[in-house]
TrEMBL record:
Species of origin: Flavobacterium aureirubrum
Protein name according to UniProt: Single-stranded DNA-binding protein
Swiss-Prot/TrEMBL keywords: DNA-binding
Gene Ontology MF term list: DNA binding
Source organism, top-level taxon: Bacteria
Amino acid sequence: MNAMKNKVQLIGHVGQEPEVKTFGEGKKVANITLATNDYYTNAKGEKVEDTQWHKVKAWGKVADIIEKYVTKGKEICIEGKLTYSDYLDKDGVKRYVTEIVANDILLLGK
């Protein structure tokens, strides 16, 4: 059991064009949204599609790959860890953010 760790693997479609920022000394961060779909049959026997949206952040080489090859609608697989943070908005209300920090990416589809 001690081999278990905070690990997330998702396959989905990119929801919008990646946002890539470069900091001093060429350090890059890429932010994307990823849609994953699940299907089930409801009580009436109807097929229902459930879409979940995930915020994904990537640094370094993974950010470089996203900048060069990932566009809106592209199917990708990411692996990373789940992170939580909070901040105060302009009205002083505490807001919470859940995102995945990707450490690996696999480009799928066309």
